[in-house]
């Protein structure tokens, strides 16, 4: 089964929830701004799944996706942009560029999701990226990031999760934190996929990144020139004591084993 599987399709099904992500982005934008957001730039866009969702949400929406990997952009063109109608696909552009160098015009919103900016291992490089994102925003633009952490984040562990592909077939998504160095806080992580016939796609995706902490990220965003940086922490469902999917600005978080939050950086 692994021979017939497509790692990008499986990634989109198991890792991404672009609807929920853009629901948060749109709600937060409307809480903070009295005008609609039109132009969204998706940094580290991969298959440009989020950019495609953005242009389908409103006829006025435009999007640009930026990624260094030509092949993943081509996959996005073939499978995601191809699903759009002519009007929608005319309002989206994919750029095979470095997020630090790209200058596609000033965006209302820049997204850097699924922790992609953790790929910058040095403080200067992360600050340079944030400064260049700020340069890429209109004067009241907003950079949206996500972040993860918790006391299990630096542990070597393997975490399987049951998923279904687009046709409803079962597969297992496996997240592996393979290696963590406490001295430089850098880690190696892999995504593997396993199928009901026990065949596997090992290391379908591998990441070498730095486990940044929220205070570091916030400090570097301010150093880069953002005027206001808020952490949006997930609320708790009283019934099961689990996350309720509602993120709001917070100065105090819970010391959970694993958490994901949003960071909202205003130009
Ligand atoms: C973790 S994936 C994120 C995919 C997608 N944004 C998501 O939310 O799931 C990281 C992507 O960033 C791209 N990438 C890494 N460094 C980059 C850079 N400096 N400029 C542009 N893209 C980069 C990789 O090619 C890869 O597609």
Summarize the structure in words.
The chain has helices at 7-14, 18-32, 49-57, 70-79, 86-90, 123-135, 214-224, and strands spanning 39-43, 62-66, 92-95, 107-112, 137-149, 157-164, 170-181, 186-194, 200-210, 228-237, 242-249, 259-266. It has 267 residues and is α/β, with parallel strands linked by helices. It folds into two domains: 2-149 and 211-266, Rossmann fold (3-Layer(aba) Sandwich), CATH 3.40.50.150; 157-210. The chain has an eight-stranded mixed beta sheet with strand order 3-2-1-4-5-12-10-11. Strands 6-7-8-9 form a four-stranded antiparallel beta sheet, covered by helices on one side. Bound molecules: S-adenosylmethionine. Residues 15-16, 44-46, 66-69, 72, 98-99, 113-114, 116, 119 line the site of S-adenosylmethionine.
Please render the helix and strand layout as text.
Elements: H1 7-14, H2 18-32, E1 39-43, H3 49-57, E2 62-66, H4 70-79, H5 86-90, E3 92-95, E4 107-112, H6 123-135, E5 137-149, E6 157-164, E7 170-181, E8 186-194, E9 200-210, H7 214-224, E10 228-237, E11 242-249, E12 259-266
Parallel strand pairs: 1-2, 1-4, 2-3, 4-5
Antiparallel strand pairs: 5-12, 6-7, 7-8, 8-9, 10-11, 10-12
Helix pairs in contact: 2-3, 6-7
The site of S-adenosylmethionine (SAM) has 16 residues, from loops.
